[in-house]
Fold each of these.
Amino acid sequence: MTKRDRESKGCADCGVWTCDTQAGARPPFCMMTEVGEDAVAASADRYTGDTEDARIARTAAILEGETYGRLTRVEEVLLFAQRMGYEKVGIASCVGLKHECAIFAKAAEARGVRTVAALCKIGGVDKCRIGLTEEQKVRPGRFEAMCNPILQAEALNRVGTDFNVVIGLCVGHDTLFIRHSAAPVTYLIVKDRVLCHNPAGALYTAESYYKRIVSE
């Protein structure tokens, strides 16, 4: 197997998953061939001590053991924030999910978690400002505010959030928000307009209703 062949494959191509089961031999293209055991030890070291990375890793692992299959994502996110001692949680929400954003904020308040939200249309800048034509808008011929994830991140950075939660930002806009957020980020809702924000549904039906996703 050539180096190029190894580089084109990864964990999704593995049928052994030795890292998880500790059984069987790693395939020739295993990513560990390139990563090396020294990198494994170095990464594990980063989860020890009292750094934020270490505290996040331990808290997440402990909650997994305590709540596995019992709590909803909403409950897990809020419990994680509580265990981490985050005093102010930011919400970066799509304006189309402002109702869900408000419910999440209410759920947080009921648990003593303080939140502050920034919606995606913050600043009210028309899409034409960034080079779109009227025809490229969802509703041509009228004012249509662009999503402004960088300003969302900056707004939450300025009020000093300790932890930010994404609710339904568009593909790409979520990337920009995460990139510019000063605080750690997690997802609550991943946008999928077709599948009611359940993108996994396309994967579960890839051999039936959504065959196109593996054939195009």
Amino acid sequence: MIGLIGGTGLLNFQGIEIIQRENFNTPYGKASDSFCLAKVENQTFIFIPRHGANHSIPPHLINYRANMWGLKKLGVTDVLAIATVGGISKNSQPNTIVIPDQILDYTYGREHTIFDGQSHPVEHIDFTLPYDLTLRDKVITYAKKVDFKCYSQGTYAAVQGPRLETAAEINRYEKDGATIVGMTGMPEASLAKELGLAYTAICPVVNFAAGRGDSQQGLSHEIITKNSEKLMTQLLSFVLGFIKDYGD
């Protein structure tokens, strides 16, 4: 079964039928919100809004462990994570979509592992390839099938937030090899790996990163919101199409 992580507005998208909502305690506390069992045509999936029902949870306070553990408990095997980002490189201009293949982690202080020596013995997972190759290939193949334009390579710089970055920080991330920047990519990806979940991110680029393009003198929340709304309709249509095609 597919698990989908994203924004609260997804369940309002036409064609989605909500079957039931699940609430339960996890070994790591409460998840961001209810886990929603939903259906699009003949395919069911589990959805959870990463930032909570009213987008009230900042990136550094999301209970990533509870969210990912809950998806696993409900029988999810493959996870699609929708994560808006800022664009750093020429291949990540606003209003494009990137399916990254690598991550740089600049976050700190987050509960980032289940192998903490308390609930589970210490284990060092291999994280050479942070995104599942098979699931990524399925998404990319489907994108080609339906002529959905996206970039199939990119390095996601996961930053702490909730503030946006300085131009100097973006310069640093670019020198490190990052092409996009966001606040929620870690520890979602590594927790998925620890739990044996196939995980891939689909990243709509909603703004130039600080110091780039029309963000050279600052970032406009108005532009970010406008681009986000424009891209989400297109992206959710693609994601739901993929879910309907999943397993065929």
